[in-house]
Specification:
6 strands; alpha+beta; 3 helices; 127 residues
């Protein structure tokens, strides 16, 4: 009995460890809370990328067929550029308040998907 309980517990934990909204999908919209932000310092390149870390536990997907990059799928990162300071401000506010955000994404480039636009709070475009 003890062995069966331990086996079921192990299966439950490993089954949930890999389950995520991007694992087997190619969505146009990803809805998720923000788990973190990675803001790069300015670089000499013309375009500095900043990253949003999606919350794997709260994400859901919908719509379209967008190629998901390997790094986005593995790490749940989306990027935006430093030229969009307004987007950076809105994402920081959503992160600090724990709001769920709808991310409309573009096809992958260098393994990551870019944020085309966002709707916050999630689902408010349906009202």
């Amino acid at each position: 009995m003890k062995r069966a309980t331990l086996t079921l517990l192990l299966l439950y934990l490993t089954g949930n460890a890999f389950a995520g909204c991007l694992d087997n999908s190619n969505p146009a919209v990803v809805s998720s809370k923000i788990r973190g932000l990675y803001i790069n310092s300015s670089s000499s390149s013309s375009e500095t990328k900043h990253y949003v870390v999606l919350d794997k536990k709260t994400c859901t997907v919908s719509g379209g067929h967008v190629e998901i990059g390997s790094n986005t799928r593995a790490n749940y990162y989306l990027y935006f550029t430093d030229k969009d300071s307004f987007l950076q401000s809105v994402l920081l506010k959503a992160y600090s308040s724990g709001e769920k955000v709808d991310f409309r994404i573009t096809n992958a480039s260098n393994g990551y998907n870019k944020i085309a636009y966002i709707v916050t709070p999630s689902g408010s475009h349906n009202q």
